[in-house]
Amino acid sequence: MKLVLASNNQGKLKELQALFAPLHIELVTQSSLGIPEAEEPYATFIQNALTKAQHAAKLSGLPAVADDAGFCIDAFGGQPGVDTKHYGVKNGYPAGDEGMVDAALCHMQGQTNRRAKLVCYLVAVRSHDDPEPLVAKGYAEGELAKERIGDGGFGFDPVLFIPEIGKTFAQLSPEEKNARSHRGQAARLMVELIQKNWL
């Protein structure tokens, strides 16, 4: 079975390939099939993930899986949320992970409530008009560190500090991160759903 990942993010591909290993399927990126990225116009993770999965399935003719993930900061009412990818640019920082993290660190100066979480929704569809998409959610709660700590991972990994282990995600091995991360949780649930419903 071949499953299209509706993302061009190599970090996500690497993580999901490892997490989906029990399915014994071939996970390919949409870009390898010449499929452009879908628009993400919605205010919720689940709507954006569904739209991306349907888009990839329609243009590939194959089953597809998409995730929509983001960083939610309590002090900002859950923002940047679905706008995480553009958070840096919208606040005058360069595009990419560095800009996103710089914007968050700047805006959190002086904040005492540093609670934050990474949220991930995974949606899988058998076809673009699948009436029964599979949906899995995961989240990892912690605190926004005051500076970057660690050199692993990507995105907000260097600043999401997990108090119970005393480390950020960027300080963990890939296996440790996958065991605790928002994407790891969602992927393990999705593996169960695919095994039960599709295989």
List its traits.
single chain; 199 residues; alpha+beta; eight-stranded mixed beta sheet; 6 helices; 8 strands; 32% helix; 24% strand; globular
- Structural class, from secondary structure content? alpha+beta
Percent of residues in helices comes to: 25-40%
SSE topology string:
EHEHEEHHEEEEHH
Number of alpha- plus pi-helical segments? 6
Tell me the span between the first and last alpha carbons.
9 Å
Low-confidence stretches: none
Shape designation: globular
Q: How is the main sheet built?
A: 8 strands, mixed
Tell me how many strands there are: 8
Tell me the fraction of residues in β-strands, as a range: 15-25%
| Overall pLDDT | 94
- As a whole number of angstroms, the C-alpha radius of gyration is 17 Å
Question: Can you describe what's shown?
Answer:
Helix content is 32%, strand content 24%. The protein is an alpha+beta fold. Strands 1, 2, 3, 4, 5, 6, 7 and 8 form an 8-stranded mixed beta sheet that branches. Helix 5 (174-180) crosses helix 6 (182-197). It starts with a strand and ends with a helix.
